[in-house]
């Protein structure tokens, strides 16, 4: 797949350095893409960062990668089976994230909201081949927090 120069530039910057040095940048750029409905591109940016991560940070990014692909298969390139499958996988990641003990109390609440959204999304799949697309489009998308560090306990992001 070919990306526009903006995305290529982001991917190059995310590739550089270790996980700690690129996380904020990757999150910020991914969030901008999410807000623009560029779900596939968000998935690509987060995938580059996800490969460097461990623990709760890895689960968070992986959950958002799969949620982004699910949303892409709803809003950009409709694919019922693919969207449902990615939403299920995303929910698994956010459920696992809840069990890590790495989230702050605020992060626990925000994570629960994402899980709630995924449950609502999945409730609108009538089968592997059928969905209520109009109801899905009416769901409020989960919020992607600007300051991702607020979601985690202070031990997850080392001080600079």
UniProtKB/TrEMBL annotation:
Residues annotated as signal peptide: none
Gene3D superfamilies linked to this entry: TTHA0068-like
Top-rank lineage group of the source organism: Bacteria
Pfam families: DUF309
Xref: InterPro entries: DUF309, TTHA0068_sf
Protein name: DUF309 domain-containing protein
Native organism: Leptospira haakeii
